[in-house]
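Section 3.1: Structural characterization of target chains.
Under the original work plan, the team committed to producing a structural model for every single-chain target entering the pipeline before any wet-lab resources were allocated. The record below documents one such target. The sequence was received from the expression subgroup and is listed exactly as submitted; it comprises 435 residues.
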Amino acid sequence: MGRSRERRRWLREREDALRAARAARVGRACELCVVGGGASGLVAALEAARAGMDVVVLEARESLGLSILATGNGRCNLANVDLSPAHYNDPAFVGTVMGERPLEEILAFFGELGLAVFEEEGRLYPRSLQAASVRNLLVAALEVTDARCGCARPVTAVESAGGAWIVRYRNESEQGRSGVPTSAPELELRAKRVLWSAGGGSLAPLEALGLPLVACRPGLCPLAVAPSALDELAGRKVRGVLTLEREGRIVAEEEGEILLREARVSGIPAFDLSRKALPGDRLTLDLVPERTQAEVEAEIHRLSKSAGRLAPHCLDGLVDPAIARVILELAERGWPLPADGVAESAAALAKRLPFEVTGAADDHPQLTLGGLALRAVDAGTLAVLCTASGAELPAGLFASGEALDVDGPCGGYNLAFAWLSGARAAHAIARGLRP
């Protein structure tokens, strides 16, 4: 027990020392400032440093790569065997960024770092099944370069000045164990190029530049639903098809394992639908996708002893008995709408269990939707070209990863784009500065 505490103390002290060392080396000028030390920023900084560039990374959190640790439920689903651009919200833009052999590039990059990878149903994970393996190898590779990394350095502003860019940031590295900053002076860094790789709530400086932004919102997360008679199903897990409808029109469908929670519908199908869902949308759950409603109704009649009253377990062979019981009770009450018969109502509920979407549940979302509008970005170089009004932007600002309005479904697609867009931007910047 004592050894365990001693080791934890030693690890904390070592991390504090590394953080202090990185913080002390930021300096006042560089060739490339990478804003955001997450997935895309780490790859970009590493590739730029390997190309001989003078690189500074500014990360708002206390350590590099922390966002990677939460991916894939801690396993880091780093890519997918099928990286077709069709999986993303803007296939043309993503296709240009990712190139012709995206998977080969990703595997070669991580193979060089020493990461063993394995496939599970098309999804690629580190052999260790630990996201820390990916994060640690990236950070370790960057630390042996000449890149300077400043953690606890949130960027507050960026502006063009005299052919370069001024990046303003706060120094929050000096803080006590309580987490309350003891000092946060604003400092300046002069950079020839800036790569913005931070997303989520970190885009205010880009908005201040007048760049076009798509409003950010949580994505790849549970769907929040309005209270209803289905609340007692919280905690049940089923396989089925979720359909998202808007004004009577089907927006999208997803099949897989679904978790019903209190005021939430969760699971990968719900996560993927959260990319498109809006408050007021209707969500229906088909518990028996392999059968038609008429077939379900016929089975209910067959197992029931009379047409007027259903057998207590007439749905147990098709759906979770706990859900079947609730469906039958609701059908007897004519919920949500009266039907011609109880059997018909029960069959309709088994095929279209209804929920009203109130929004995306902000329960540790895996992704932030929205970001810098792609119309302002050159897909070939990831250079930011213009403001929201169409005015030309001074050269030298680039964007990658979650900073861009690019999103894909669960399955490694978003990390794949993060890795590749970071690398593409770094290579384009290096070519511009070191032709």
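Residues 76 and 120 are 12 Å apart (CA to CA).
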